[in-house]
Amino acid sequence: MKFTFDKDAMVKEIAIAQEIISTKSVGSILSNVLLIAQNNTLSIKATDIKVNFETHIPVQIEEEGSTTVYCDKFMGILSSLPEGEIEFNQTSLEGEDQAITVIIKPVSKKIKFQMKSMSQEKFPDFDSADNVPFFEVPSKDIKEMIAQTSFAVSEDETRYFMNGVYFEKKGDNLNLVATDGKRLSFASKNLLAGINDFPSAIVHPKVLNTILKHAPVEGNVSIAIVDKMIFFRFGNYKFGSVLLEGQFPNYERVIPESQAHSFQVEKTDLVDALKRVALMVDKKAGRIYFNIGEGVLKITSQQSELGSADEEIPCQYAGDSYVIALNYRYIEEPLRCIDSERITFEFTEEMKAVTMRAEPATDYFHIIMPMQKE
């Protein structure tokens, strides 16, 4: 197996493979990236069993073949080499007990690295997406929906059915929902007109965050949900992920039909105030207080041994005063993906769900369960 490739093109793809691979154990096949050279194309594959990645780059092949190499070390070598053409040569070296060795060297420099390689025979097979029904959605829209929901998944592995983002088709709408039991993020867009029904699915955030990072802003992303897998395709990239099993909670029961009170604030005021007040927040508990009064929102940190902080910002509100205890992270995180100048909070009582959304309302909202006051 022998081929020549452009350094920058390879580095870009191996960097994505590194994100997919979860183990750093040198002896594990799952720490390796699979390289298949044929027809002047190099196929690159990586997996952690749950998430698969495949891409292709053009190369100049002298001898076709396939092998696997330790991904982290391969990336380290590539990063150290100068720009330009690199030669990859897999060979059996004399005196190495028939060990298969890869020689990596720049075409124009006297630099040479030797790496042991492992046979591809133990590399896991990928589930094929060749004959599954894909549908297309605008890349910009699916990236936005992932950003609006994936941060809210549960990290409690005993509640594995909430460790992913729920995908469902509701009429012509694609809904994405994530919850950890204390908050819920909901995004919905009319993207599925003319698309056949597909089963609802709980999707691992690892593959979603990879799509969020690498899918283009323009163009479409192709998606297929079939059996126990979800597949994504765009450009030269193919991703597959095992779906999480279990019954996702009935999220519609959490969404209030109506709420008695609401107030509005400027987003920049809220972001800046939260940033300052959070300096005095116990990061483990995360508790802050929203003191809502006529025309003023006072944000206060919980009193601690280190002290406290409070800040008042203008708000559009008329009515009785309320004090609601909230986790500051549950406000800060959705703020990052709400693209509007004003934010609306809706509530009924101090211990009932608070809805946070853009003003004017869009197809995204975030629901927060208040904390006990202390």
Protein architecture, described:
The chain is an alpha+beta fold and 374 residues long. It is 17% helix and 40% strand. It has 6 helices and 25 strands. It has helices at 7-20, 71-80, 139-149, 205-214, 267-277, 329-335; strands at 2-6, 32-38, 41-47, 51-58, 60-63, 65-70, 85-92, 100-106, 113-116, 135-138, 165-170, 173-179, 183-190, 201-203, 220-226, 229-234, 237-242, 261-266, 287-293, 296-301, 310-314, 322-327, 342-347, 354-359, 364-368. The strands form 4 sheets. An 8-stranded antiparallel sheet has the order 6-2-3-4-17-16-15-10. The chain has an 8-stranded antiparallel sheet with strand order 14-11-12-13-25-24-23-18. Helix 1 (7-20) runs antiparallel to helix 2. The N and C termini lie far apart (67 Å). 32% of the residues are buried.
Quick structural summary:
This protein has helices at 7-20, 71-80, 139-149, 205-214, 267-277, 329-335, and strands spanning 2-6, 32-38, 41-47, 51-58, 60-63, 65-70, 85-92, 100-106, 113-116, 135-138, 165-170, 173-179, 183-190, 201-203, 220-226, 229-234, 237-242, 261-266, 287-293, 296-301, 310-314, 322-327, 342-347, 354-359, 364-368. It is of the alpha+beta class. The radius of gyration is 25 Å and the shape is elongated.
What is the alpha-carbon Rg in Å?
Answer: 25 Å
Tell me the helix content: 10-25%
Overall mean confidence score, pLDDT: 93
Tell me the number of helical segments per DSSP (H or I, 4 or more residues long). 6
- Major beta sheet, specifics? 8 strands, antiparallel
Tally the beta strands.
Answer: 25
Strand content: 35-45%
Describe the strand arrangement of the main beta sheet, using strand numbers: 6-2-3-4-17-16-15-10
Which stretches of 5+ consecutive residues score pLDDT under 50? none
> Which of globular, elongated, flat, extended, rod-shaped describes the shape?
elongated
Secondary-structure-derived class: alpha+beta
Distance between the termini: 67 Å
